[in-house]
Amino acid sequence: MDFEHFRDHAHQFVDWMAEYLGSMEQLPVRAQTAPGAILDVLPTSAPEAGEAMSYIFDDFKRIILPGVTHWQHPRFFAYFPANSSPPSVLAEMLTATLAAQCMLWETSPAANELETRMLGWLGELIGLPEDFTGSLQDSGSSSNLVALLAARERASEGAVAIHGLSGLPPLAIYTSEEAHSSIEKAAKVLGVGARHVRKIAIDDQQAMRPEELASTIARDRAAGIIPTAVVACIGATGLGSVDPLAEIGQICSREGIYLHVDAAWAGSALILPELRHYLAGIEHVDSFVLNPHKWLFTNFDCSALYMREPAALARALAANPAYLVSPDGATMPEYRDWGVPLARRFRALKLWFVLRSYGAETLRSMIRNHIAWTNGLAQQIREEPTFELVAGPRFALVAFRFCPDGVTDETAIDLLNEQLLAKINSDGRTYLTRTTLNGRPVIRFSIGQTYTEARHVQEGWNVVRELAAGLMSSTAEPS
Ligand SMILES: *Cc1c(COP(=O)(O)O)cnc(C)c1O
After folding, report:
1. pLDDT in the model for residue 44
2. Torsion over CA: 55, 57, 62, 64 (sign)
3. Nearest CA, atom 2, ligand 1
4. Ligand 1 centre distance from Cα of residue 109 (Å)
5. Which SS3 state, helix, strand or coil, does residue 83 take?
6. Which residue of 156, 209, 263, 281 pairs with 160 in a disulfide if CB–CB is 3.0 to 4.6 A?
7. How far is 304 from 290, CA to CA, in rounded Å?
8. Quick count: other Cβ atoms within 10 Å of Cβ 196?
9. pTM here?
10. What pLDDT score was predicted for residue 477?
11. pLDDT for 476
12. Using DSSP, how many helices (H) and how many strands (E) does the chain show?
């Protein structure tokens, strides 16, 4: 494809992109596709001869688009958001065009230095102490892995990176029952083992119980196990719970244990000064993660990992084969040693575009709106006699359960909730996710899409009520 054709197609694509974003509301949120349906219409081998871009684009619209779940849909209330925005997409176009590989300072000085500056901007916006330095990782899971790797190196005094785990007593990681699954995954990758992830019991607000943490650490020490890290959560994935950072931090400082904070989702909301109190205890924290690709209008992938001692991590991970020697970059951080991959995308550009294009004030008001609408929704759920608000509002998340009049059996209620969720998600007008509370299914409603307005939240809730009422009248009918 020559550059003239490239220009024509790019213009056509941009027209389509604006059209798509503006009319997405008409599409079902979740792809209404049967498993294997897309696979069945795709040829089993790559073409020998090149094809015209117009055919390829037609197939994108015909085959791919119906099989896409529209994450930027204004009535997407499932999981957590992975919100994007026009300035972020514009930056991604430039990033894709430059296609720079940003492994070393030398291989893209601007990417390296913009990343440094953006992590400074973001850290200041969320009120992190100045002695944290950050880097952009591909995902919250990677950030958690890298933080726990730093913890492992500290607990073993650097021995594991050199000698491996053999000969060492077991290492243990402490987190709550509500922790994200990536903590256990990291323990598997790091050789700590899932068995040595201590899932500390939670209280009635689904927050880690510090006294349980302290007694579990004591028990492990008595058994010769090395307490390696505690992972506290601000805004857990299931129900948005917040662990008591100050109390956990005191335990970690007293015991000399590495403390990592997983704020992958809710960390973005800390740009609101009124939420800064969640950082009480931050003086005890060694590392902190938030994903601008979740709730800060920046395209996936963009996870910000902050550390107090990134140099220790870089020492543990440094690999300096001859082909990576770059004397010019010696005074700059070499981010390749701050994570697992060597190759790095230019992720800072989209964050720069987003932060500049909106400005902090507008970003704050967007997130404040999400939280206000969530509070309003929670109030509606409370007032609805056939629904029970079971958790939240926390940040921009609530969880509820459908419990219609006359149904008292727990198993029957659980089944109704599973049926209701299935109905909601195949209806297509909105999209929600389940989780469990005390072992029983509940339905989450998570607000945070860039294009969501108050009316979309109301429409989503109306769909839930309508389908719940329909479920009752259909089960009441004689079969
Ligand atoms: C989403 C999430 C993660 C994982 O982040 P990814 O970028 O999806 O890997 C980790 N922890 C919490 C609390 C999350 O909400």
Report:
1. 97
2. positive
3. 264
4. 29
5. coil
6. 156
7. 5
8. 18
9. 0.95
10. 52
11. 58
12. 15, 11
Q: Is the dihedral of CA 373, 378, 380, 386 positive or negative?
A: positive
Beta bridge partners of 232: 261
Select from 390, 371, 384 the least CA-distant residue to 438. Answer: 390
Mind listing the pLDDT tens digit for each residue in 362-380?
999 999 999 999 999 999 9
Tokens of 92: 């991604």
DSSP run (H or E) holding 464: helix 454-476
Nearest CA to ligand 1 atom 14: 264
- pLDDT, tens only, 44-76: 999 999 999 999 999 999 999 999 999 999 999
CA distance to 108, 127, 131, 280, 333, per residue, from 276 (Å): 35, 7, 17, 8, 29
> Is residue 168 exposed (0-12), middle (13-18) or buried (19+ Cβ within 10 Å)?
middle
Per-residue b/e over 258-274, b at no fewer than 16 CB within 10 Å? bbbbbbbbbbbbbbbee
**What pLDDT is recorded for position 211?**
98
Distance from C-alpha of 479 to C-alpha of 477, rounded to nearest angstrom: 6
Tell me how far the alpha carbon of residue 211 lies from the centroid of ligand 1, in angstroms: 26
- Cβ-count burial 311-343 (b if 16+ within 10 Å, e if not): eebbebbeeeeeebebeeeeeebbbbbbbeeee
CB-ligand 1 contact for 435 (6 Å cutoff)? no
φ, ψ dihedrals at 387, nearest 5°: -125, 150
